[in-house]
Amino acid sequence: MYAAVATFLETLSAESSPDMYLLGAHCLRDGDRRVTLRYLRLTNGRPDGRAMDGHHVDRPVHDLEQLDAVVVHLFAGPYVTVGAERREVPEGSKQLLAFVSLRRRRVERRQAAGSLWPFGDEERAAGNLRSALWRLRRAGINVLVADKWSLALNTNVLVDLHLMEQWAARLIEGRPAGRDLTVSSWVTDALDLLPGFYDDWALMERERIRQRILHALEALSERLAAAGRFADAVEAAMLATSAEPLRESAQRTLIKAHIAEGNLTEARRSYRAYHDLVHRELGVTLSDDFSAGLGIPEARPSLAGRHRVALSPQGASAAHR
C-alpha cells in the first residue's frame, strides 16, 4: 500500500503545476485508508504561507470570505459558502450537516441516523439519512464524503467552528498571532452555535464552545490592554460580560481594562453595577477580596442592616439561613 502511495506522489510531483509546492502527505486510517495532501502556494517561487489541510487554517474566522475555499458555517447557520457565494442548506439536511461538521473524524452512518432520527426503526432512520444526503447534492453542496458505512467532511472543506477553536486556543495558551488580536463581530454569532437546535448533542457543544469563547475574550482583553489598545480591550471584556453578566472573571477583566487605561471612575462604575447585579440576582454581596484583588478601594461601603457575605458556595448558603 505504501509503495503505491510513494509512486502516486512521485507522479503527482512531476505533473503538479509550477505555482504549487508539494510538502508531503500522510495516510489516515479511520475505517478506511485515504491520503491527504498538503500544499503551500508559491509567490515568485517561494512559499508565502504554511501547510494547510481541510481542517486547519491559521487565519481568523472573520477573514473567511477572503479565502477561495468551501466553508461550512455553523454560527448563525448552518449554511455553506464557496468563496463569496453563499449556498443555503436544505431544511431536511441541516441536522446531518451540522452533526458531521461538529466531529473531526468519520462518523458511522448508523450512529448518525440513530442520533438524528431516534424515533422509529433503523430502516426508516437510514432512509432519512439517504434523503438528507440526496438533498445536499441536489443543492450543489458536495461537502460530505459517504460510503456504505460512514460519513465525513471532504478534506478540502473548512468549518468556522474549527477555525474559531484554533483562534481561541492560541489566545488561551498565550501564543496569539498579530491578526488574532482583533475584536470581531463574528464573536457574537459564535456565542450562539446552531441557533434553533435543541438536541442534546447540539446543546452540549453549544455550551462547550460558549465557555471556550468567553475564556478567549478575557485573554484577548488582557492582551489588548497590555499592548495599550484600551478601547479594544474594554470592548472584548464587554462582549464577555454581555454574554454572561454574572461571570466574575469577565467582570474582573473589564474593571482591569478600565484601570489600565487610567479610568478609575469607569472601573468603580463597573464594580457598582456588578455589585448591584449580584445582590439582586443571587441575594449576596461581593466579598472585599473582589475589589482588593483589583487594586481599587471598595467602591461602596456596606449599607446599614445589610448582611455582607462572600460570593462563594458557603456564603450563599449563609445568606439563605
Q: What does it look like?
A:
The chain is elongated. Helices cover 47% and strands 15% of the residues. The termini are far apart. The strands form three sheets. A four-stranded mixed β-sheet has the order 6-5-4-10. A three-stranded antiparallel β-sheet has the order 1-2-3, with helices on one face. It has a three-stranded antiparallel β-sheet with strand order 7-9-8. It is built from twelve helices and ten strands. It is α+β, with helices and mostly antiparallel strands. It has helices spanning 2-15, 94-101, 109-116, 122-138, 160-172, 186-190, 200-226, 230-243, 248-261, 264-282, 288-292, 313-319; strands spanning 20-29, 33-43, 46-47, 70-73, 79-82, 85-88, 107-108, 144-146, 150-153, 157-159. Among the domains are: 1-51, no CATH class; 160-319, Alpha Horseshoe (Serine Threonine Protein Phosphatase 5, Tetratricopeptide repeat), CATH 1.25.40.10.
